[in-house]
Write a structure and sequence with these properties.
single chain, mainly alpha, 11 helices, 76% helix
Length: 233
């Protein structure tokens, strides 16, 4: 019992930075969703069942534009395909998670991954319980933020101009942090250059899917080269 309490306390401590971001970003999502005419229940269900920050922001535009199921499916695949790459690295860590494994897979976001992928747990903190509580707490923060945003958007006069930039700001911060933490900058440069090229070729409205396809192909081709570089380092 003491170990479980210690695990929960440690998980909460490690989740605090994510809490501060998720509540604010979730509020942005809830406000924008409310402005599109989708209320509290929609915000709760989307954050509970979809739980993909960037894709939830994109979904707001898809709902507003009446996008087809095919377009929505392709967009979802392209936006979230990055999960495949870092999700593979968690297979070993989650191997002994038992009944918790399906939820851990579902709840693996960029920020949760950054906390659980490389951590030396103190004595008395149970590994699989730690993964579970970190994942659960992070989703709770996101759901809470979404609900608060929906309530604010429906009860207070609020100018939502610029709120949609919050997710862009988050990815900029993640990009800078990853750039500083690794000497292998090929994925980052690949993403920037192919995105700019796709923007020039396809325009602002249609560049995202071609960019994601190009980045995926480039990373698959460059995988062996990157692994050799890491081995030499």
């Amino acid at each position: 019992m003491n170990n479980r309490k210690k695990t929960i306390q440690y998980a909460f401590q490690k989740s605090i930075p994510i809490m501060t971001g998720y509540i604010v970003l979730g509020m942005g999502f809830g406000i924008l969703l409310q402005k599109q005419g989708y209320g509290l229940l929609w915000a709760f269900l989307m954050s509970l069942c979809i739980y993909a920050g960037s894709m939830q922001y994109v979904t707001i535009d898809l709902l507003g534009s009446g996008a087809s199921l095919v377009a929505t499916a392709i967009m979802t695949l392209m936006v979230n395909i990055r999960h495949v790459f870092y999700g593979i690295t968690m297979l070993t860590k989650y191997q002994k998670a038992g009944r918790k494994k399906p939820y851990l897979i579902f709840a693996l976001t960029d920020e949760t991954f950054s906390v659980v992928c490389d951590v030396d747990l103190p004595e008395g903190v149970e590994e699989n319980e730690y993964y579970f509580w970190i994942s659960l707490m992070d989703q709770f923060y996101w759901v809470l933020g979404s609900l608060l945003g929906s309530i604010i958007g429906s009860t207070l006069p609020f100018n939502s101009a610029g709120v949609e930039f919050s997710m862009t700001a988050l990815f900029v911060v993640i990009f800078v942090e990853q750039w500083e933490k690794t000497k292998q900058h090929f994925p980052a440069l690949c993403g920037v250059l192919l995105s700019l090229l796709s923007l020039l070729l396809f325009g602002a409205d249609d560049f995202l899917i071609p960019a994601m396809i190009g980045i995926t192909i480039a990373l698959l081709i460059g995988k062996k080269w990157m692994e050799k570089g890491e081995t030499k380092a």
